[in-house]
Amino acid sequence: MVTKARSTPRREDSLSRDRIIDASIELLDSSGEGGLTFRALSERLATGPGAIYWHIAHKSDLLTAASDTIIARTVAATVVGATPQATIRALALGMFDAIDAHPWVGSALASAPGQLPIVRIVEGIGQQVHAMGVPDRQQWAAVSALLSYILGVGGQNAANSQFARTQGIHRADFLQGLSTAWSQLDAAEYPFARSLAGQMRTHDDRADFLAGIDFILSGIASQQSRLAKNVVTT
Amino acid sequence: MVTKARSTPRREDSLSRDRIIDASIELLDSSGEGGLTFRALSERLATGPGAIYWHIAHKSDLLTAASDTIIARTVAATVVGATPQATIRALALGMFDAIDAHPWVGSALASAPGQLPIVRIVEGIGQQVHAMGVPDRQQWAAVSALLSYILGVGGQNAANSQFARTQGIHRADFLQGLSTAWSQLDAAEYPFARSLAGQMRTHDDRADFLAGIDFILSGIASQQSRLAKNVVTT
DNA sequence: ACCTGAACACCGTTCAAGT
DNA sequence: ACCTGAACACCGTTCAAGT
User: What is the rounded distance in angstroms from the CA atom of residue A150 to the CA atom of residue A143?
Assistant: First the structure.
């Protein structure tokens, strides 16, 4: 053991990376993406902005660490289902709900490609894709399809919340407004988007999210059976 | 006709929304997301920052308009294929390539939910989903699955480029570095992500993107046949 | 080793004043 | 109607100076 535990910290409530991250999460949850500021944060922690830089490299480091706290919790809380598919659905739903509860996570993940929170999600999905029997060579495509979809939905959800917040309205009211805007689109140029405006208002976000996961899962399954057939026939 | 064309503009090269948007695109392409600044922009246009606000409401308006120029071009250039599926693939690939060429579009779309550029994509995909014979009630789920996936991949691509740019390296070198980092992950905690590091280095971004589109398309198709069977048997 | 807080080099946005 | 440019109210980040 080269390093040993710090003996008697200076004061009980001394600054630490963990305390900074916890305070950041509180700030992000209560005031949104724009609410996380080194000034607001240092005020909440009763220090100067410079003190934070002793523990954290820069703001994006802070955002990634904050997201990672949420993601680690979410992945750990995922209940393993009866089948790999069921577990993937559970994990995906957990992600959906986590981003719904903490919209800033959606945009933070979008700008932290390949970082620890993403690794956790990839690991969670990947083990199940492996269990599904997807051959090694196809695993990356399968995992990254699921990951990209989850991040895509998460990002849109985050943006909706963020947009609504800056206008001082609720997410539901913002979506309602969007639906109205779409229903007034030019009928000749955007017939489809226009016809979708109604569904946009009544649809169930969570159910549609899951429908997308199922599309991908069944697509992965059908490619596997196609590959299996090729092995037999060629 | 209530409005009539402006007679004799003050000077040939006077400021206009279009000129501002074109200059923004040049700035974004050459200097990345961080390069678009009202100061840099007004310098390029040889005016003051205030002049721009006469034509544009705020920065996000500018970003959305700039993305819309790219997206409109991309959607218009999409070649209609032999089948709706082929057309969707072509449209999706067009989006992939557009975001690859203009990474900032990827992140701009993520924060402009329901805005015009998104409407264009939804319209393009939606008409084909309709042509596939997907029943009205399922169309939103199908379209939004495809859209979310495209935006998800686009966002990750944009973030990769952005990340690489701030470190002053090329995207390929950044991905190479990520792959190395993943290969050094703890074997007990992240066995899958670790095993994926190799594929991460050698995979073909574009091919994997298309594989994801195909997963979703075949998932949509298989749900249709399931629904059709239900109609027959019940 | 860790913290303080002033200072630096920026931002987006506004607005009185001009033409 | 459109443009100018100084000014406002912020940012993230650095760093000499303290303990």
Answer: 11
